[in-house]
Write a structure and sequence with these properties.
alpha+beta, disordered N terminus, binds protoporphyrin IX containing FE, metal-binding, catalase activity
Length: about 550
C-alpha cells in the first residue's frame, strides 16, 4: 500500500486510521510519544524502588495483561483464509442474490474449525469440523455457517447447552481436551437418540479429515431461495472439494496429533503459500416449497435428516478458491464473527427450530467474545457495502458519526438515511404463511424417527469404512467408566444395525442386545461412501 510513514518515523498527511498501528519508524507510547528506552523501569536510583509515575511501564504491562480475549465457546480452534467466490449463474433461475450471478466475483473469508477443543488443542482429533464462509457482497454480508457433517446432534436449539456441556471436557478433571471418548458425551447421546445420526458420522472417517482442503461442507438446515418474481425453492447447501474427500486412518491421526498438532492449519497455509489454491464447488439440492416442507417423506425442517444425493442431485452454482493466508491471526481468524442470520436478498431461512436458536446465539456470544456490540466495525467483519445503521456509541466504538439525527423519521438531517424498496435491493422477508396454532413445547411426529438415517449411512459405507466405524465406537466407548452407558449405547446401535452392534459389543467384551423392533427398510445411498467420491464436473 502507499507509504504513510517515512523510514525516520515522520508521517505523511492523510494517515488512514485503519492502518496506522505499528507503522512508525520510532518506538513510541500508544499516545505517540517517542521513547528512548523500553528495557528499564523508571526507578529512584539504580537499586531503588520502581516509580508509579512510569507511564510507559504501566501502559506496556496493562496492555499485555489484557491481550487475551475469551475463546469461542465452541469452535475455538480454527484456521482461515481469504479467497474469492465466482458464481456460475446457474442459481439465478431460482435465486435473485446478485453474488450468484454468472461470473460475479465476491471476496470471501473462510474459517475452518474443530468444535470441542480449546484454542490450543490438536488438529487431527475425532470431531466435527466447522466450515464457515463470509461473502462480502455489495448487497451486504452473507454468511454460510456450516459444518463438514450434514446433520446435527439435536433438532431444537434449546438443547445446544446440553449437547455442548456433554461434549466438552469433564468439569472435574478437564479431560479429554478434544475427543468424544468420555462418559458425559456417551451418556447424553445414548439417552438422546436423535443424536445417533450425527454420532455415527463422528465415528466414521469423516470426523478425521486428511486436510481442510479435502472436506465437504454443508449448510445443514434447509434454506429458502427466492427469485425476482418472489417464487421460492427450498435448498440444502453443499461444498464439494475439488481435491475429493479424504480422511486419515485413526492411527495416522493419533501419530499426527503428537508429531504435529498444527497439521491442518499448517497444511492449509502451506498449500496457499505454495500457490496450490484449494477449491470447492458450491452446490444446492433443490426441493419444491410445499406447505408440508418434506421431500420424498423426509422432513426438511429436521436437521438430523438428509436427502440422499441420488434422489436430489447436488447442482453446482459457483466456485470458491482460497488464495491468501491471513496476515494476522488475531485480527482476522480470531476476530471474525459469523452469523447464520447474515443474509442477502434471495436467501431466506426456514422454520427449522435449530436454526431459529442459532439466529439468536451467535450475536449474543459475540457481544461477550468481542467486547461489546461494535464488532461489525472490526476490519475483518466490515461489509463491503455502504453502512448507515443509526446505531451509536457502545464499547469499542471506532466510528465518528456525523449528523445529529440517529433516528427516523427526522427532518434535521434531511430525513436521511432513506429506506430502500425491494427494487433497490432491500431485504424483504418472504411472506410465508404461519399456521394458526396454539403454543406448544413439542416436535412433529416425523422428528421421532432416529434410526432410519443412521442406518442408511451405515449401509452405504464400503466394508473398510464400516470396519473403521466399528473400531471407532469400540475405542471411544471403551474409555467410558460406566458400564451402564456402554450397554445403553449398544442398545442404540442394535436399532441401527445388528452387524454394527455385534462388532462393537465383541470389541467391548459385552453381549450384543437385540433390536427393540423391526429395523427400518432403507435403500443405501452410494454417495455417502467417501471411497471414489468425485464431484460430477471433475
Ligand atoms: C460457532 C456451525 C449449531 C452456537 C460455530 C462455528 C460454526 C458453527 C462453523 C464457527 C464459526 C467460526 O469459525 O467462527 C454450526 C452448525 C450448527 C450449529 C453447522 C448446526 C447445524 C449451533 C447451535 C447453537 C450454536 C444450535 C446455539 C444455539 C454457536 C456459538 C458459536 C458457534 C455460540 C461461537 C460463535 C462465536 O464465538 O463467534 N457454529 N453450529 N451453534 N456456534 Fe454453531
Amino acid at each position: 500500500g502507499p507509504e504513510i510513514y517515512s523510514a525516520t518515523g515522520e508521517h505523511a498527511e492523510g494517515v488512514d486510521p485503519a492502518v496506522w498501528a505499528q507503522t512508525g519508524g520510532r518506538l513510541t507510547t500508544a499516545q505517540g510519544l517517542r521513547l528512548y528506552d523500553t528495557d528499564h523501569s523508571l526507578k529512584a536510583g539504580e537499586r531503588g524502588p520502581v516509580l508509579l509515575q512510569d507511564h510507559h511501564l504501566r501502559e506496556k504491562i496493562t496492555h499485555f495483561d489484557h491481550e487475551r480475549i475469551p475463546e469461542r465457546v465452541v469452535h475455538a480452534r480454527g484456521a482461515a483464509a481469504h479467497g474469492v467466490f465466482r458464481g456460475y449463474g446457474t442459481a439465478s433461475r431460482i435465486c435473485k442474490a446478485a453474488f450468484l450471478g454468472k461470473d460475479v466475483e465476491t471476496p470471501v473469508f473462510v474459517r475452518f474449525s474443530t468444535v470441542l477443543g480449546s484454542r490450543g488443542s490438536a488438529d487431527t482429533v475425532r470431531d466435527t469440523r466447522g466450515f464457515a464462509t463470509k461473502f462480502y457482497t455489495p448487497q451486504g454480508v452473507f454468511d454460510l455457517v456450516g459444518n463438514n457433517i450434514p446433520v446435527f446432534f439435536i433438532q431444537d436449539a434449546i438443547k445446544f447447552p446440553d449437547v455442548i456441556h456433554a461434549g466438552k471436557p469433564h468439569p472435574d478433571r478437564e479431560i479429554p481436551q478434544a475427543q468424544s471418548a468420555h462418559d458425559t458425551f456417551w451418556d447424553f447421546v445414548s439417552l438422546h437418540t436423535e443424536a445417533a445420526h450425527h454420532t455415527i458420522w463422528n465415528m466414521s472417517d469423516r470426523a478425521i479429515p486428511r486436510s481442510f482442503r479435502m472436506m465437504e461442507g454443508f449448510g445443514v438446515h434447509t434454506f429458502r431461495l427466492v427469485d425476482e418474481q418472489g417464487e421460492t425453492t427450498l435448498v440444502k447447501f453443499h461444498w464439494k472439494p475439488k481435491l475429493g474427500v479424504h480422511s486419515m486412518t485413526w492411527e495416522e491421526a493419533q501419530i499426527t496429533n503428537g508429531v504435529d498438532p498444527d497439521f491442518h492449519r499448517r497444511d492449509l497455509a502451506d498449500a496457499i503459500e505454495a500457490g496450490a489454491f484449494p477449491e470447492w464447488e458450491l452446490g444446492i439440492q433443490t426441493f419444491p416449497d410445499t406447505p408440508e416442507q418434506t421431500f420424498e417423506g423426509i422432513d426438511l425442517l429436521d436437521p438430523t435428516k438428509i436427502v440422499p444425493e441420488e434422489w436430489a442431485p447436488v447442482q453446482p452454482i459457483g466456485l470458491l478458491t482460497l488464495t491468501a493466508n491471513p496476515s494476522n491471526f488475531f485480527a482476522e481468524t480470531e476476530q471474525v464473527a459469523f452469523h447464520p442470520g447474515h443474509l442477502v436478498p434471495g436467501i431466506d431461512i426456514t422454520d427449522d427450530p435449530l436454526l431459529a436458536g442459532r439466529l439468536f446465539s451467535y450475536i449474543d456470544t459475540q457481544i461477550t467474545r468481542l467486547g461489546g456490540p461494535n464488532f461489525a466495525q472490526l476490519p475483518i467483519n466490515r461489509p463491503h457495502a455502504p453502512i448507515n445503521d443509526m446505531t451509536r456509541d457502545g464499547m469499542h466504538q471506532t466510528a465518528v458519526h456525523s449528523g445529529v439525527a440517529a433516528y427516523r423519521p427526522n427532518s434535521l438531517d434531511g430525513g436521511c438515511p432513506f429506506l430502500a424498496g425491494a427494487g433497490e435491493g432491500a431485504y424483504v422477508e418472504t411472506p410465508v404463511t404461519v399456521p394458526q396454532a396454539s403454543k406448544v413445547r413439542a416436535a412433529p411426529a416425523s422428528f421421532s424417527d432416529h434410526t432410519s438415517h443412521p442406518r442408511r449411512f451405515y449401509l452405504s459405507l464400503s466394508p473398510v469404512e464400516r470396519e473403521h466405524v466399528i473400531a471407532a465406537y469400540t475405542f471411544e466407548l471403551s474409555k467410558c467408566y460406566e458400564q451402564a452407558i456402554k450397554e445403553r449405547q449398544l442398545r442404540v446401535l442394535a436399532d441401527i444395525d445388528p452387524e454394527l452392534c455385534a462388532g462393537v459389543a465383541a470389541g467391548l467384551g459385552l453381549p450384543a442386545p437385540e433390536p427393540s423392533g423391526p429395523l427400518p427398510d432403507v435403500t443405501p445411498s452410494p454417495a455417502l461412501s467417501q471411497l471414489g467420491r468425485t464431484w460430477p464436473t471433475d
